[in-house]
Amino acid sequence: MTMIDLSREITRHAADLIAQGYCILPDALPPAIVAALDADLAGDFARTPFGQGGFYGTMTKRFGRLLIRSPHAAAVVQHRLILGIVEAVLSPWCDRIQLNTTQAIAVHSGAPAQLPHRDQDMWRGPVGKIEYLVNVMWPLTPFTSDNGATIVWPRSHGARALEAEPGESPLAAEMAPGAALVFLGSTLHGAGANRTGVVRRGLVVGYALGWLKPYENQWLAYPPDVARHFAPELAALVGYRQHRPNLGNFEGQCPSVLLRDDVPDHLAAIDALRPDQEDLMAVYLEAQRQAS
What we know:
- It is built from 8 helices and 9 strands.
- The strands form 2 sheets. A 6-stranded antiparallel beta sheet has the order 1-7-4-9-3-2. A 3-stranded antiparallel beta sheet has the order 6-5-8, with no helix packed on it.
- It has one domain: Jelly Rolls, CATH 2.60.120.620.
- The termini are far apart.
- The radius of gyration is 21 Å and the shape is globular.
- The protein has 292 residues and is of the alpha+beta class.
């Protein structure tokens, strides 16, 4: 895909996402990559216990840290089209986006439908004014209305999240491996009931405003000894990058300094300001210089 084509696709899908609260990318990845990722995670699915509690589900298995469980996970997390869509939607409210979570989910036979919810509710910020995150559901096995495909309420997002009841009926996001369901954090959704005899497996990859506390503690999931082996762009996405002004710093510097082989014992704090703050600081310093 050329840069012009990519830009056009980003614009088109971002518009659908903002208008509908969700969109489906039918051929986002080659099925062979998804199958290899599923194979890499098979052992973790087998060893992970079922969840506890009504929300996570007692017939559902979940685990995170996908970037250290499979080398194919980076292709999902760094998907160029999806990152472009996410940045287009979230950039009005942040300097940089961050990885919020990578989670594998297996909905087993007999699992009831999950409580309909909006993922933005993990943060108690204003509702209906900004978008906090964008989630992407990747099926590892076919998603059908019978086996627990994600249920989405169209146009239940944004200011409509303030309404007591959604205005439209839900739909099951039926997809084949290789497709991706992209939906806003303000969109009402939930896993469907699995009424079949087979397990429905999938991944959710979430991206949030860079100044929020992420759902998954990325620095514990990928400590410096792990993250220094990531590509620089991936390390930045998981949190080894400051968000201006000076948020998420280490000793006053970008935390990417921790990925070096020779981290000094003492570091000088270095400003990391937004352009408007840089301008304000320049005016202030000039006024001080002239007054001295």
